[in-house]
Amino acid sequence: MALLAIRSYPSADNLCLDPQATRMLNRLTLLVLAWFLACCALPAQAGSSDPSQSDPSQSDPHAAIQLLPGQAHPEGLAGLAIQLAPGWKTYWRNPGDAGIPPTFDWSRSENLREVTVLWPAPSRYDQEGASSAVYHDEVVLPLRISAIDPSKPVRLALGLDYAACKTICVPAKGSADVILSPGTQKGEGSAEIEQAMKKVPVSREIGATETLAIKQVRLDTATNPARLTIDVSAPSASALFVEGPMKWYLPMPEPADKADKANPQRFVLPLEGLPKGATLAGNELRFTLSTGEAGVESLYRLP
Fold first, then answer.
1. Structural domains of the chain sorted by starting position, each given as residue range(s) with its CATH number in brackets
2. pTM of the model
3. Distance (Å, whole) CA 151 – CA 25
4. pLDDT per residue over 229-267, tens digit each?
């Protein structure tokens, strides 16, 4: 098994790079890893001869995947379980400064119209100046399934490329199959999927009064670069993540200088990492506030 160190380049301090250049260097390293994942990952082991049973199929002993049958369609709910060795991690849909998100191939599926991947709230991981959004040890991603013909079974077949990381990252490639039959019965994976659904962030407007919420976002254009200050409400230790338009490589929001680092209620976000010539006004950001067990998502349009 070939191993690839995700942080093998010199540190930003040694290179005297500013934060934006550091993130761009991280992204370049990750592009190399993405190419490695696509071209050099070992082929997955053969799946089960009985497609009605999910079969973990993996290219590395540190990680495996399994499809879990949930609610039969037309509701159509399944789950993707990614099982990792203790102390290992994999990445959220927007991995941050250092990481590769999973990529999904459903082309072998039958009677499948659409799959929507739901993402449980991630945790923040900091290492050597890079911040990532990760899942530790094990995660179940709920899957909403739409059938072409609701009266017939759906054969859900997945090919997955992803990264499993500890101090190094291992390119992983897995495949799994499961049959979802029409009807109202629940599958064997329903309990695990329902638990994962509780961790999927709910949509909540900025300014909501709930215990877990993004309270206020303020833009300061007097600084260079412009900066957002985000006030939140969280009952326990939380992390804040941000996603912007395509090719916006925004840093991860950091607790404000005087914030309680154990449970920050205020974050700051310098608006750097934008494409050359990009303007702020009218662009939309998506914030995800996560405790690791629950989360909320809020949209903010830059004025």
1. 12-197 (2.60.40.1250), 202-301 (2.60.40)
2. 0.81
3. 51
4. 999 999 989 999 999 999 999 999 999 987 787 888 999
